[in-house]
Specification:
Order of helices and strands: HHHHH
Shape: elongated
Mean pLDDT: 75
Number of domains: 2
Radius of gyration: 22 Å
Low-confidence stretches: none
Largest sheet: none
Strand content: under 5%
Length: 132
């Protein structure tokens, strides 16, 4: 325990309230202490459970771009249309990622459901991409 976190506050609550707080903290991948501190100090609480999925999808994009570059360098047989399709898809993903970042940078305007919907669109877009 650091010197800055030695002060304690204790309070009593109903077991059902305790369970609800524990479930809320767990759903946000936070400790109960961090969750209560954030709520009481009116800090922005953000569900980041979608970050690993978007990270995985971004890695997939990188792998696919590398595969395309390998084919292009090996066969020298990639059409302008194929390159345009890849660029269009990457621009679309980039725009959606930018929208998520803007929501995260403006916590007062943030709507987590919008972020989840944007992430879902990104994942659907990536799954639907044709790379051949």
């Amino acid at each position: 325990m650091s010197d800055t976190t030695k002060a304690r506050i204790e309070f009593r609550l109903h077991p059902a309230e305790k369970e609800k707080i524990e479930k809320s903290a767990a759903a946000l991948h936070m400790t109960v202490t961090d969750y209560i501190r954030a709520c009481c100090l009116r800090k922005q609480i953000m569900d980041t459970s979608w970050v690993p999925e978007i990270t995985k999808q971004i890695i997939k994009i990188g792998v696919n771009v590398n595969q395309i570059a390998t084919v292009a360098n090996t066969t020298h047989n990639v059409s302008d249309r194929q390159i345009d399709i890849v660029n269009e898809n990457l621009i679309g993903v980039q725009n959606q990622l930018r929208a998520i970042i803007e929501h995260m940078e403006n916590p007062l305007d943030q709507n987590l459901n919008e972020c989840r919907m944007l992430l879902q669109k990104i994942c659907e877009k990536l799954d639907a991409m044709e790379w051949s």
